[in-house]
Amino acid sequence: MESVLIGLIVMIVWALVSRRLSDARVTGPSLMVIAGVAIGFTTSDEIGHTLNTVVAERVVELILALLLFVDAMEVKGGYFGGERGPTLRLLLIGIPLSLALAVGFGALLLPGLSFAVLLIIACVIVPTDFTPAPAILRDRRLPRRIRHVLNVESGYNDGVIAPVFIFALALAENHGHDSALEALGDAIPAAGLAVLVGAPIGIAAAWLTSRSVERDLASASAIRMSLVLVPLLSYATATSIDANGFVAAFICGLAYRATRSPSEVELSLAEDLSTLTSLAMWFVFGLTTVLLASFGVDWRVIVFAIAGLTIIRMLPVYLSLVRSDLTSRDRLLIGALGPRGTASIVFGLLAYNALDGVPADDVLYAMAATVIGSVLLHGVGSAWLSDRLGRRTAAADPGASTGD
User: Fold this and answer.
1) What Cα–Cα distance (Å) separates residue 246 from each residue in 21, 64, 72, 258, 263?
2) How far is CA 155 from each of CA 108, 245, 253, 338, 390, rounded to the nearest angstrom?
3) Tens digits of per-residue pLDDT, 6-62?
4) Using CB atoms within 10 A of its CB, is residue 265 exposed (0-12), middle (13-18) or buried (19+)?
């Protein structure tokens, strides 16, 4: 209970001085991690037990459902933000290549782990999230198009990875390669059912909201609340019939947006709750790093995390964008500027809760090493990359950096 109280106090303090902290380049996630680490040293014996409970698992699942729904709704300028070609290449070519490369690296560095656990780790370390490094998306040294492509990709990649993650968890829980076809046989129908659940709920919710707004049947605050409840309804409905709740929430967001485009005001509550729950996850991450300190240092997992932030991200991104209208420098920038954050934390915590023993610890360790490495690399290194590569790219295409 002490951890919860301190976490709430820190979040309130952040909320009251967030503008000043932002001016000083102190992000909410970094503040929550520091608080989590500080509290973790006094409650380290309770952390592992708290994380490995059904209640914690359900809370994290609902948070992910909300995040996926908001991600699907937030991209401006159409589904692909006017960058359909690069976005589809990154999602449909870059992500599968990254997952495959991560599994390959993992097999070399952590040969004791099964394919299923390696795939889980790959799903944890691959998705990008700009929550811990929002300055990248505001850095005018980077061409506007590069920032936009990064933002659109980040909005969708966790939704693409979610069904793969669920498949890998099912395979790991069945303990063995022989169950791969069985797990795949469960995952595909579950994803299909999720589409059949999420799409109608999204369409119906959007249509009913439009009719309500037209006839002035609901207050503005009630409409905002409905956009929080809709993804939770979609998730709960899907899980009640053994469908993939995460896919349902993501598809629900896409279907809602296809039927009706909500205003920024209408989406503000869902976005604020998404930010708040993300901060909570960063606090839990801080607590988790203290737990991992008791495991000792495993250089293999650290090397794996470094590879995940560099070659496992950069090579697939570069290859997926070959023959596109993006230059070599553009492709290098997009590959290098891919911070990890809330999505990795949530996937890591879900995997830790579902697995047992060494595999659970290794997944949690890989998640923590990757996120910490990303905070250091993209918090400090992004400025250097922006200065060296960003300005040259912007100079070659002056119009790319305008229009902010």
Assistant:
1) 33, 7, 12, 19, 24
2) 31, 18, 12, 12, 22
3) 778 888 888 898 888 877 777 788 888 888 888 877 765 555 556 656 667 788 888
4) exposed
Please compute Rg for the chain using Cα positions: 21
From CA 253, how far away is CA 199, in angstroms rounded? 8
pLDDT in tens, 150-177: 988 888 888 899 999 988 988 887 755 4
- Residue burial 84-94, b: 16+ Cβ < 10 Å; e: rest: eebbebbbebb
- What is d(CA 370, CA 340) in angstroms, rounded to the nearest whole number? 7
- Token pair belonging to 197: 């659940």
List alpha helices for 24-143, DSSP H: 28-51, 54-74, 84-89, 95-109, 115-125
Interatomic CA distance for residues 105 and 304, integer angstroms: 7
Picking from 168, 164, 231, 167, the residue whose alpha carbon sits closest to that of residue 197 is 231
Does position 304 have pLDDT exceeding 70, yes or no?
yes
Residue with tokens 């449909």: 92
- Work out the widest C-alpha separation in the chain, in whole angstroms: 62
What is the token pair recorded at 337? 């500027």
What is the distance between the alpha carbons of residues 122 and 105, in angstroms, rounded to a whole number? Answer: 10
Euclidean distance between CA atoms 381 and 106, whole angstroms: 25
pLDDT of 216-253, one tens digit each?
Answer: 999 999 999 999 999 999 999 999 998 899 999 999 99
Which amino acid appears at position 226 of this protein?
S
Instruction: Fill in the amino acid letter for 379.
Output: G
Q: Which of 216, 256, 271, 278 is nearest to 63 (CA)?
A: 278
Length of the chain: 404
Contact residues for 88 (Cβ-Cβ < 8 A; gap 6+): 80
Helix (H, G, I), strand (E, B) or coil at 262: coil
One-letter amino acid for residue 246 of the chain: F
DSSP label at residue 20: H
82: number of Cβ within 10 Å: 14
**Phi–psi pair at 141, nearest 5 degrees:** -70, -20
Coil, strand or helix at 24: coil
Task: Over range 346-362, report the average pLDDT.
Answer: 88
- At position 273, the amino acid (one-letter code) is L
Quick one: which of 44, 22, 86, 129 has its CA closest to 371?
129
